[in-house]
Amino acid sequence: MKRIADKLHREGKRIALVPTMGYFHEGHLSLIRKARKVADAVIVSIFVNPTQFGPNEDFEHYPRDFERDRRLARELGTDYIFGPDVKEMYPAGYRTYVEVEELSKKLCGMSRRTHFRGVTTVVLKLFEITKADVAVFGWKDAQQFLIIRKMARDLNLGVKLIGVPTVRERDGLAMSSRNTYLSPEERCDAVAIRNSLRHAKAMIKKRIISAPKILAAMRKVIGAAKSARIDYVEIVDVDNLEPLQAVKKGKTLIAAAVFIGGTRLIDNIRV
Ligand code: PAF
Q1: Are the CB atoms for 160 and 127 separated by under 8 Å?
Q2: Which whole number is the average pLDDT over 88-103?
Q3: I need a surface site. Which of 90, 190, 205, 255 has the fewest CB within 10 A?
Q4: 21 Cα to the center of ligand 1, angstroms
C-alpha cells in the first residue's frame, strides 16, 4: 500500500482515504462519492479494528462482507481497497497507542473508555500507510470526527479532513452497520432516537434554548420506546464537548447514545 501511495504521489495525484470497518450501507457510499469528487485517487480501507472494541463489545459479531463491499466500492470508482488483517496492523508485541486527551473521555468515552484510543491509533496508522492528502468521515460519528480533527491538528498531520452529513433511512433512523442487529420491534423503537433530536430542533425553533428543558423532553420521547435505554443524551459545545446550559447558535452539538435492546446506537445534530 505504501509503495502504491508513493507512486500515486510521484504521478502528482491527490489521495483521498475513506476509512471504514466495512459492511457498507448508503452512509459509507456517500463518503466514497465525496472522496471521488475531491481527489485523483480514492483508497477505501476496510478493517474491523479490534483496539476500538471493549472486552464485552461486538468485535467478533460485527457484520462483515468483504466481497460485497469490494464490488460496491469498485462500482463507485474506488481505485484501491486496503484490507489488512489484524496481525498485519497489530503484530505480536504491538505497544504504541495515540490518545487525544479529554475529548476522548466525554460522551461515548464515558461508557467506552478505550474506544477512541483505538480509533485514533488505527486512523493515524491508516493515514501513514495510505499517505492520504484528504480523509473523509461521517458526521454520524461526530465525536470521532472532532477527535480525529484534534489529533490531525495537534500532530501536524497535514491531512485535510472532510465531514459528510449523516445518511438516514426513510423514517429518519441514522444508517449504521449495527442496525442489522435489531429485531423488527426494536427497529420500530430505534426511530425514537431521531425523533428525540427532531423534537429538540423544534423546541429550539420555538426559542426554547434551556438545555435541561430540551434534554428532559428528549428523554421523554426516547423513554416512550419500550426497548430503549439511554446511555446518554447531552447538549454540548461542538468544539470542546463541554456541557452547555443553553443552546449556543452555531456552536452546539446535541448527541445521544441509546441501547435498543442489546444494540447501542448513536445519533446527533448540530444546531
Ligand atoms: O467509523 C468507523 O468505521 C471507524 O471508527 C474507523 C474510522 C474506520 C476506524 O476504525
Answers
A1: no
A2: 98
A3: 205
A4: 6
